[in-house]
C-alpha cells in the first residue's frame, strides 16, 4: 500500500490541486512559495496525530472570488487516496488497516481518507445573511475572522466521502508519519537516553544479536534474553549493595534528623533501598563521536550536517521499532512514512548524495514505506530518478504540478515511444548538479555549447536585462539535443513544466557535391550559400524551425540570419568588425586580425583586407568565394565584415576564447559611462532571445 494521490482544495496557497505520488521516494522541487511544504503539511494534517487539526483563517486559501464567498462559506478539503502496491501481500496488515476506507475492491484496490475544515450547516444561513451586502472579498474575510472562524469544525472521513463515515482512531494510529521540518533542532532530540526517541531505539536494539538471529526459535531468543537480564540484575544488585555499604554510617546521621523531628513512630523509621532497571540506565547513555585519535567528543560538538544525518538514521531506526509486531504486538505501526523538508540544510554535496543513497537503501529494505522530500538542491535532484521527481511551479499566480518522468510518453503516439524513451534516458544522464537547475528556474535558455553559456549572461548585462533579475538560467546541452529536453516543458501537453523556453542554435550552413556518390556535407560560409546550385546541394540547420516566430505557446528558437549567419563566433565578428574587445590573448592570428580592423577603420576596400590574409588553402577559399559573392546581396561593407568574421572564426578555440572574451566584456562593462568604454553589439539573434525572455509570460 502507498499514498497514491492527494486532492487539496482551499488550503493555504492551493485553490484546487491534485498531486500523484509514487510508491517509494517522492522528491518535491520547485520555486519558493510554490506549495511544497504546504503539501507535506496537508499530509501531516491527516496522518500525524501530533498535528493540531483545528485550523485558523490563515490556513484558508485567501484568493477566493467575491462571488464564490457569497455563495458558500469557504471550506478546506484534503483527500488522500491509498492504492495497492506491486507485489503486496493481500493477507497482510495493510489491507486490514484500511478495510473500512476502501472505495474500490478491484485490484489494485483503492482506499480514501478525507479531512475537512468547514462551517457547520447550522451557521451557514447566518453567514450568507452577513456577507450579502459585502462589496469586496476583504470585507467578507473580516466577517469570517470576527464572527465565524470560531464556529468552524474539522472532521475526518474514510471511504466514499459522500457516506461521511468517521475515522476510527485505531486505524489511523497504524500510520507512523514522521515529519522533519526545515527549521529543526535535531541536537535536543539526541543528547542522551533520557530522550524518548533514543530510549525506544536503545530498548529495541538491546540484545539485537539474539533478536535478529534467525537460527534461533522465538522461545530460544526469549530464554537467552531472559538469561542476560538476570545476569544484569545480579550486577545491578551488587552496585546497590556497594552504595548502601558506603552510605551506612552517613545514613545513621541522616536518619537521626527523622528521629528528632518525630518522623519515626511505631518502631519504624525511614531507610534507603533501590533497584536499577535496564530502562533506567538508558538515561545515562549519551551519544558521542569516536575519533581515530582515541578521543571521544559529545554529539553536541559535532557539525550540524552530521547531526542531521545521525538524527535521521535514529528516526528510521525508531520507525523500524514502531513497526515491529513482535516487539509491540497489536500496537505496531503498519505504514511508516517519512517526510523531510530541505534535507540539504547543513549538508555539503557529497553528503547530499550519501543521504539519498541511504534513503533508497531503506526503501529497498522496507524499513520505511514511502518518503516525501522537499528540496531546492540541484545535487539531491541530480541523484534522484526522473520518475521520483514532482515539480511545483507558478503559472498565472497559481501552483502547477509537473511529473518530469511522465512527459516522455503519450499513449496516443505508440510509434514514437521508443524515441521518447531514448530522450528520457538522455535527460536522466544529463541531469548532473548543474543541469538540473533547469527544473528550478522560472525561465530557461538552452544553448549548444560552452561559449554561449559563458557569454549570454554578459550579453544580457550589455542590454540592461540581467538574467538573474529576470530569473533566467542558461543551460548548455552540448549540441543540438534540444528536443530531448523540450518534452519537459511543452506547454501543449499535460504534466509538463510550463516555463518560457528559448533555444539558441547556430545556422551552420553546409554544402555537398551533387555528382559524388560518397560526398559528405561540409561547412560553408554564408557568402558561399546557394552560389553554385548546379555543383552543390546546400542546407542549413532547420531542426528548430517549428519553434520560430511564435509557433509554440511557450517555446521559441532563435538562430542567425538565414543569409548572413553561420555560428556564434562568426556572428560576433560580423556584427563587431572593428571591435578590439574580440582580440583576446589566446586568439590565433592576433596581429593579422588587428591589421584587418585598422584597415576597416581606415575605410579601405575589400581587396586591401584580403591581401592581409596569409597563404593557406582555407584563406584562398575565403578570398575566391568573397570575390565571386553575389553583389546583389554582398555589397562592399558586408564583404569586409565577412572577411573579418571568417578570419576570426578560424582563429578561435571556443572554450578558452569564450572565457577570455567574457572577462574582457565584463571589464569593459564596468567602464560604461567613461571615455574608456568601447561599444559592443550583441548579436541580433541573441538580443531577440534575451528580450523575448524578459517579456512577461
UniProtKB/TrEMBL annotation:
InterPro entries: AAA_GajA/Old/RecF-like, Bact_Antivir_Def_Nuclease, P-loop_NTPase, TOPRIM_OLD
Signal peptide: none
Residue ranges annotated for the Endonuclease GajA/Old nuclease/RecF-like AAA domain, each copy included: 1-380
GO molecular function: endonuclease activity
Alphabetic keyword roster: Endonuclease, Hydrolase, Nuclease
OLD protein-like TOPRIM domain location: 439-508
Origin: domain of life: Bacteria
PANTHER family recorded: ATP/GTP PHOSPHATASE, ATP_GTP PHOSPHATASE
Protein name: ATP-dependent endonuclease
Organism: Alkalibacterium indicireducens
Lineage, uppermost ranks: Bacteria, Bacillati, Bacillota, Bacilli, Lactobacillales
Amino acid at each position: 500500500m502507498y499514498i497514491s494521490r492527494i486532492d487539496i482544495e482551499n488550503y493555504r496557497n492551493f485553490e484546487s490541486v491534485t498531486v500523484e505520488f509514487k510508491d517509494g521516494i517522492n522528491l518535491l522541487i520547485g520555486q519558493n512559495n510554490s506549495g511544497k511544504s504546504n503539501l507535506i503539511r496537508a499530509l501531516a494534517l491527516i496522518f500525524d496525530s501530533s498535528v493540531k487539526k483545528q485550523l485558523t483563517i490563515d490556513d484558508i486559501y485567501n484568493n477566493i472570488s467575491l462571488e464564490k464567498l457569497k455563495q458558500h462559506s469557504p471550506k478546506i478539503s484534503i483527500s488522500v487516496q491509498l492504492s495497492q502496491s506491486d507485489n503486496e501481500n493481500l493477507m497482510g496488515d495493510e489491507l486490514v488497516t484500511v478495510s473500512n476506507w476502501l472505495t474500490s475492491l478491484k485490484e489494485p484496490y483503492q482506499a480514501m481518507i478525507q479531512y475537512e475544515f468547514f462551517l457547520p450547516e447550522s451557521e451557514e444561513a447566518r453567514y450568507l445573511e452577513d456577507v450579502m451586502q459585502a462589496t469586496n472579498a476583504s470585507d467578507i474575510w473580516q466577517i469570517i475572522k470576527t464572527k465565524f472562524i470560531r464556529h468552524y469544525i474539522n472532521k475526518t472521513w474514510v471511504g466514499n466521502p459522500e457516506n461521511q463515515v468517521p475515522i476510527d482512531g485505531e486505524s489511523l494510529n497504524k500510520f507512523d508519519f514522521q515529519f522533519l521540518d526545515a527549521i529543526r533542532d535535531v541536537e535536543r532530540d539526541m543528547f542522551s537516553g533520557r530522550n524518548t526517541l533514543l530510549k525506544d531505539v536503545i530498548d529495541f536494539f538491546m540484545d539485537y544479536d539474539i533478536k535478529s538471529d534467525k537460527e534461533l526459535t522465538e522461545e530460544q531468543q526469549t530464554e537467552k534474553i531472559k538469561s542476560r537480564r538476570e545476569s544484569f540484575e545480579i550486577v545491578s544488585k551488587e552496585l546497590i549493595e556497594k552504595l548502601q555499604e558506603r552510605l551506612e554510617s552517613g545514613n545513621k546521621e541522616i536518619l537521626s534528623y527523622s528521629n528528632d523531628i518525630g518522623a519515626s513512630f511505631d518502631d519504624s523509621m525511614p531507610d534507603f533501598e533501590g533497584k536499577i532497571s535496564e530502562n533506567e540506565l538508558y538515561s545515562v547513555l549519551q551519544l558521542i563521536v569516536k575519533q581515530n585519535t582515541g578521543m571521544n567528543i559529545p554529539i553536541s560538538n559535532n557539525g550540524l550536517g552530521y547531526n542531521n544525518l545521525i538524527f535521521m538514521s535514529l528516526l528510521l531506526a525508531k520507525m523500524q521499532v514502531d513497526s515491529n509486531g513482535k516487539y509491540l504486538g497489536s500496537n505496531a505501526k503498519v505504514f511508516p512514512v517519512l517526510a523531510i523538508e530541505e534535507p540539504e540544510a547543513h549538508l555539503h554535496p557529497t553528503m547530499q548524495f550519501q543521504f539519498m543513497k541511504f534513503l533508497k537503501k531503506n526503501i529497498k529494505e522496507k524499513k520505511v514505506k514511502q518518503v516525501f522530500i522537499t528540496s531546492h538542491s540541484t545535487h539531491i535532484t541530480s541523484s534522484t530518478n526522473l520518475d521520483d521527481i514532482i515539480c511545483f511551479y507558478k503559472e498565472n499566480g497559481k501552483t502547477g504540478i509537473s511529473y518530469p518522468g511522465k512527459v516522455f510518453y503519450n499513449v496516443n503516439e505508440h510509434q514514437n515511444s521508443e524515441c521518447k524513451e531514448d530522450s528520457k534516458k538522455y535527460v536522466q544522464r544529463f541531469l548532473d548538479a548543474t543541469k538540473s537547475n533547469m527544473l528550478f528556474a522560472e525561465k530557461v535558455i538552452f544553448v549548444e555549447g560552452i561559449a554561449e553559456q559563458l557569454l549570454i549572461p554578459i550579453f544580457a548585462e550589455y542590454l540592461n536585462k540581467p538574467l538573474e533579475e529576470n530569473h533566467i538560467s542558461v543551460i548548455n546541452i552540448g549540441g543540438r539535443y534540444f528536443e530531448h529536453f523540450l518534452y519537459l516543458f511543452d506547454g501543449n501537453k499535460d504534466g509538463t513544466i510550463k516555463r518560457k523556453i528559448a533555444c539558441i542554435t547556430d545556422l551552420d550552413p553546409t554544402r555537398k557535391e551533387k555528382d559524388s556518390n560518397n560526398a559528405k556535407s561540409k561547412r560553408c560560409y554564408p557568402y558561399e550559400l546557394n552560389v553554385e546550385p548546379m555543383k552543390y546541394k546546400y542546407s542549413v540547420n532547420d531542426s528548430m524551425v517549428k519553434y520560430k516566430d511564435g509557433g509554440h505557446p511557450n517555446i521559441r528558437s532563435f538562430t542567425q540570419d538565414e543569409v548572413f549567419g553561420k555560428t556564434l563566433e562568426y556572428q560576433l565578428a560580423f556584427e563587431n568588425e572593428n571591435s578590439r574587445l574580440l582580440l583576446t590573448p589566446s586568439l590565433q592570428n592576433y596581429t593579422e586580425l588587428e591589421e584587418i580592423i585598422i584597415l576597416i577603420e581606415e575605410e579601405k576596400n575589400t581587396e586591401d583586407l584580403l591581401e592581409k590574409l596569409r597563404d593557406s588553402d582555407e584563406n584562398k577559399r575565403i578570398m575566391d568565394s568573397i570575390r565571386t559573392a553575389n553583389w546583389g546581396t554582398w555589397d562592399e561593407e558586408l564583404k569586409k565584415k565577412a572577411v573579418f568574421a571568417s578570419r576570426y572564426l578560424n582563429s578561435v578555440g571556443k572554450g578558452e576564447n569564450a572565457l577570455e572574451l567574457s572577462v574582457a566584456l565584463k571589464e569593459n562593462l564596468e567602464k560604461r559611462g567613461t571615455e574608456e568604454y568601447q561599444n559592443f553589439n550583441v548579436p541580433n539573434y541573441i538580443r531577440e532571445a534575451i528580450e523575448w525572455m524578459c517579456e512577461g509570460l
